[in-house]
């Protein structure tokens, strides 16, 4: 168990972060050093002012109202997944720092309830989104459009979320334990707390991190780069 | 495929690959939200017309040769070489696409599939698989540009005939189609055929406009064919003419792609700023009506009138309101199609597809959404400022028995003008 955790949850994290950051930097460098299209590719209606363009960019990227109109079901699942992913990301900050004022406000039990309910709901929402996408790509017309990359990414995400949900609903480790582990990584003095090694939840964490590492490593080389590319491609719409 | 041809095809892809294309290819999530946006996919259910699938073919080649991850694990992306199978599918995907960009409108990342397919056409042309009909039409236009003197006699005699018709409509013996008029304010670049010139001439003359007609037509088959150099040369014919005559403004006719080519593409192709203001004729007509330079009466047009936004003029050209204002100025009985403006369904006739017999079946099937819209509107008259749209909708009209009268907007305007000779539909005057 200890070796497994060291590989997936210490060294794997370093490797994944290095590849992820380097890969994304390389991707952005590639894009920014390729000459822009000489033809204005915008479409109408387009805002006339810079502020208007920025507003439209934000709306198109975060809400995608046009997509919602034409494909409400797909948009619904996608929107749910992304909102849940954002909530989960905020929730994960808890393993980096103690939230500033929430604990005083809610108390220890209140915090636990918030994490369980909000984190639980978000975790389920992500799971539902992934299962919808897998089903969508496995049955129907999308099967023919899908390539192995799509299934690989969904499998990795499924692993990340399933193990995350397992820790949330079944696991018995305190947030403090995760915080010690994660901060030790950030401080470049990695340790694995004994509580982790002694708990079955440690295995869930190790597997959660295994999938997370692989997901982050593959991220810059996959269609996941839409996470940043969507901003500039949506901006072109107003050019 | 031999090595030399492979090098040529991948070289074309490499040369065409700009930042936007790279991003489109890198970020498409194959979510298929575009499927319901495409009239061809909706009309046929054939996956080769699904916009993301069309783009996927270019992505497969790109991943195979230009993307590190794709070269490392090609199977992950189904990366493959541009073999005969791929090129066959690419041909259907690219040349059937009407370039309406409705998929881009609905895409959460605004991916311009039509732009990706312009690369597809460049690859097909390099492989000797460009559409023959479009290529021939483009070459014919270039030939005319190179041998303008050869066509002059027949053109001048045609303009004289049209002048007669104009005088018959307006009742003014001074009115005519101005030819080679140096120092005119406007060069009107019409389409081939009197129908595009006669009503425009009536309107220009009645408005007291300083104008002259181009010896060349605004249609650009080089653009549809996918050869930017041919397209540039075809456009340059009337740019040079405008320079020679010293006009201030180029006015393009009721043609979707002609406006987009002049306003959005020519500068990029020629790498020079467009030396003229480019206007669509309906901008001018709208201005004439609003400023009182021409008079139109409501009540001369019978029946409920609707309006179809040609994709290149509306979603891709930004001209939504002026044409509607014109139609509303000639009738109180106007009904819009649903959806309309930026969400307007493509009629299925753009991109040169009406000239390609091999796509007739998919073209007619892809018009089903337009047919539904037209039926739901309850209109008996359709105003449509695009030649390709009109050709397609006229065929749909016949096949589906819609009983529509299909008009150019400028014909509606002329019919609504209190002129002695326009008691009949202007288009019928010449017949």
Short description:
The complex is a heterodimer of chains A (239) and B (431). Chain A has 239 residues and is mainly alpha-helical. Chain A has helices at 2-33, 50-62, 65-70, 72-92, 102-138, 142-145, 148-169, 175-186, 194-197, 201-218, 226-236.
Determine the CATH topology of chain A: Fumarate Reductase Cytochrome B subunit
What would you call the structural class of chain A? mainly alpha
Task: Indicate the radius of gyration of chain A in whole angstroms.
Answer: 20 Å
| N-end to C-end Cα span of chain B | 54 Å
CATH 2nd-level architecture of the largest domain in chain B: 3-Layer(aba) Sandwich
Proportion in helices of chain A: over 70%
State which percent range the strand residues of chain B make up.
Answer: 5-15%
Question: What is the typical, i.e. mean, pLDDT of chain A?
Answer: 94
Give me the number of helical elements of chain A. Answer: 11
Helical content class of chain B: 40-55%
What does this structure look like?
- The complex is a heterodimer of chains A (239) and B (431).
- Chain A has 239 residues and is mainly alpha-helical.
- Chain A has one domain (2-35, 43-236): Up-down Bundle (Fumarate Reductase Cytochrome B subunit), CATH 1.20.950.20.
- Chain A is built from eleven helices and no strands.
- The mean pLDDT of chain A is 94.
- Chain B is mainly alpha-helical and 431 residues long.
- Chain B has three domains: 3-130, Fumarate Reductase Iron-sulfur Protein, Chain B, domain 2 (Orthogonal Bundle), CATH 1.10.1060; 134-290, 3-Layer(aba) Sandwich (Rossmann fold), CATH 3.40.50; 305-429, 3-Layer(aba) Sandwich (Rossmann fold).
- Chain B is 55% helix and 5% strand.
- Chain B contains 22 helices and seven strands.
- Chain B has helices spanning 3-16, 19-27, 39-44, 51-66, 68-72, 74-77, 84-96, 102-106, 113-126, 132-146, 148-170, 194-206, 221-225, 228-245, 256-270, 281-290, 321-330, 360-365, 368-377, 387-399, 409-416, 426-429, and strands spanning 186-188, 211-213, 249-252, 277-280, 305-307, 381-383, 405-407.
- Chain B has a four-stranded parallel β-sheet with strand order 2-1-3-4.
- In chain B, helix 15 links the parallel strand 3 (249-252) and strand 4.
- In chain B, helix 14 (228-245) packs across helix 15.
- Chain B is globular, with a radius of gyration of 22 Å.
- The model of chain B has no long low-confidence stretch (mean pLDDT 96).
- The chains are: A mainly alpha (239), B mainly alpha (431).
- Chains A and B meet through helix 1, helix 3, helix 4, helix 6 and helix 7 of A and helix 2, helix 4, helix 6, helix 8 and helix 15 of B.
